[in-house]
Amino acid sequence: MNIFDKKEHWETIYKTKDLKDVSWYQETPKVSLDFIEYFKIPKTAKIIDIGGGDSYLVDHLLDLGYKDITILDISETAIQKAKERLGNRANDVKWIIDDIANFSPQETYDLWHDRAAFHFLNDQKEINHYIDSIQKGIHSGGALIIGTFSEKGPKKCSGIPITRYSEESLDTTFNGYFEKMKCTYIDHETPFETVQNFIFCSFKKL
Hints:
- This protein is an alpha/beta fold.
- It has six helices and nine strands; from the N terminus they run ααβαβαββαβββαββ.
- The protein has helices at residues 6-16, 30-38, 57-64, 76-86, 124-137, 167-174, and strands at 46-50, 68-73, 93-97, 109-115, 138-149, 156-157, 160-161, 178-189, 195-205.
- It has a seven-stranded mixed β-sheet, with helices on both faces. It has a two-stranded antiparallel sheet with strand order 6-7.
- Strand 8 and strand 9 (195-205) form a beta hairpin.
- The longest helix has 14 residues, at 124-137.
- The protein is globular, with a radius of gyration of 16 Å.
């Protein structure tokens, strides 16, 4: 019986595919940027982007003047691609290669952003670990912005089963330590001209 190696799986994807050839590609992560504006996140804020690897969010954050950005991704290849794209600006970013299912934050952040990483956690122990990590890793009054496939979204991504969420189930998941602020459903058009429905929710740490 073959044991699924998550890290090897993602390294293979990023080694064999261009960013514009993956379903999650976004040149401008508008929804995430709109939520950041909604929270009026100051330029001095400590921000971590979970699964941010080769995402363009970091480019936009740097363009906007944010100074304290951390990117976490399981794939070293994805992070290397982002560094190459950013050039010298990559030196202004902190990079962490780790699996979010095992990650324990060593700092606390003003903003924890996660677009499409959390929904890959299907095991309840991993989900509980994630919840524990954000409880420890976000300042009181800090913001959580999270995007997952909705209940109308795909059941798999990149060959991996995912957990789909609704506004209500996300609220239930983080209830007790976070106050739900704003949620929105959006249709993401992939480079293959297919549509994936996401739920984005924002929370404030109590």
